[in-house]
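Worked Example 4.2. Consider the chain below.
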Amino acid sequence: MSKKGKALIGVLVVLLASLVVWAVRTVPTPPADPGKPQTVMRDTQAKLTQASGELASAQAEQQQTESDLKETKNELDDLQGQQRQLEERSRALLEGNRLLEQAKDELLLKNDVLLADNSRLDQSNTELEKNNAGLQTDNSRLFTDNRMLAERTEQLRQGIQIMSESCNPYGDGRASSRIIQAILYHYGCAASRPEEFKA
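Applying the procedure from the previous section yields the following structure tokens:
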């Protein structure tokens, strides 16, 4: 039983005792008439019955109050349980928000890294474009040099061909064999003279 119920019962007991004392004190002095004490007893019994009814009503109210208190306590327990569930959900939501913020920070960091990589790639592309332009210039120069080399080679080939087809006024490179042939003919070791050089 709760403290409130116990206090209510104590108050009712004090009221009942006060009522009994009041009823006893208000009992009139018995008259000389012998028929009146029965009337007084009936009045006293009626008052006691009324007091008992009031006490029973007070007890019923106390029981109803205790029942209401139990229901209120049950409702309070339910509310506390719901509050605990809400607190757990709130903690879960806070943890989820913290994880989301952490994931957001990681994504921002990765985004910064990607931006830095893109910047480096742009620089590399710019350098590659410059290198490609330089290579194209070098290729153009090489093509020009190759064309000039081919033209010069063709000129040299034509010059060599012209020189090989023309007569050399200084000989054909067979003078030594002709000298030997002439010596042999002079001493009778050869049947014929060597052919003379014709420029």
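Helices lie at 3-25, 36-165, 175-186. DSSP finds three helices and no strands in the chain. Compare this with Example 4.1 before moving on.
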